[in-house]
Predict the 3D structure of the following.
Amino acid sequence: MIHAGEREYCVDPAGGVLGLLGKGWALPLMGVLGNRPASRFSELQDAVRGIGGKVLSARLRELIDLGLVTRKVYAEVPARVEYRLTEAGLQLREALIPLLAWATVHPAPSRPRRGSDPALRQG
């Protein structure tokens, strides 16, 4: 529970969204999808460098299941599929901006890579 002023906010209902946003590639996808009116799968793969097709499909499905993204298939040959943020997705993206601004000013301390810190090595 988070208390802010006269209100209380339960963290549990946000669990699905927060769980997804904590997964790799979800935040970059939200960013790219919000920067354009619509995106095709290949455009998303090009824009989010390093994401594989399998992971991109999984993240898009999860975003769709949460009602944050829509998938529209056009009856063309070959089929054209476009992804867009829903109104809820746009609102979430907007709500993330202050958090991302805060994170820019307060970056997480870098952790030594496993095994690279002599104090952590067993002798």
Notes: DSSP finds five helices and four strands in the chain. Confidence is low (pLDDT under 50) at residues 119-123. The chain has one domain: 2-106. The domain at 2-106 is CATH 1.10.10.10 (Arc Repressor Mutant, subunit A).
